[in-house]
Design brief:
222 residues, five-stranded mixed sheet, four-stranded mixed sheet, 9 strands
Length: 222
């Protein structure tokens, strides 16, 4: 069984469509949250995942759009949230509102969260020594998380921790959209990066009246 993993789409329809076209055949697709925020196409990205019935957990931007709270976000992020609230209809907002903070998928072999399993808003990075320990994994084979927009895989005796990277706003210095594929038969992970039409997104950012920095950072992958 092969499972595709995506996270942090952030309303970037062009990147999402490119990732889905590039992804090899998988038996299931999972999303680790933050479907909306920052970029111009929140409604379209929600609909793509809804139509595919993709198991998804709530990200902090998803929750902020539903709750109408953004006081801890910078102005660039707040602008993306305001744009999402204007664009999303009641059904799309309801879908976001019903997303859980944690999911067990693939017969319990995968735990899917957005941030740290014990604190969804905590940024958990692979570069922090001792960040992961035996206690982080329960009885699942694979823990999937996002939030940092930094792709990484770590193998432990208890299982594998995966951040598939960000589809819509990478922050690891590589502007290409990120995703991952898990082979549960071999228990291996392949990380992928794919180029997409960033200039089209930057033009759409400008047309939507979003901050210029939102588009500019996409080209830098930061």
């Amino acid at each position: 069984m092969k499972v595709g993993l995506i996270s942090d789409v952030h309303s970037n329809r062009v990147a999402l469509e490119t990732v889905l076209e590039d992804m090899p055949p998988v038996d299931e697709l999972l999303c680790a949250g933050d479907v909306v925020g920052y970029n111009p196409w929140p409604a379209e990205c929600v609909d793509i995942l809804r139509e595919r019935d993709v198991p998804t957990v709530v990200g902090n931007h998803d929750a902020a759009v539903v709750e109408g709270t953004a006081f801890r976000f910078n102005e660039m992020a707040q602008a993306g949230l305001r744009h999402a609230r204007r664009q999303l209809d009641d059904e799309q907002l309801e879908w976001l509102a019903e997303l859980p903070a944690e999911r067990r998928e693939c017969g319990g072999r995968v735990k899917l969260v957005h941030g740290h399993p014990d604190d969804p808003k905590r940024y958990t990075r692979y570069t922090y020594p001792g960040e992961f320990s035996a206690g982080l994994l329960d009885d699942e084979d694979v823990l999937v998380l996002g939030h940092t927009h930094v792709q990484g895989v770590e193998q432990f005796s208890e299982g594998i921790v995966i951040n598939p990277g960000s589809v819509g706003q990478p922050r690891d210095g590589d502007p290409r959209a990120g995703y991952a594929v898990v082979d549960f038969d071999a228990l291996t992970v392949e990380t992928h990066r794919v180029e997409y039409d960033i200039e089209t997104v930057r033009e759409a950012v400008q047309a939507a009246g979003l901050p210029e920095r939102t588009g500019r950072r996409l080209a830098r992958g930061k």
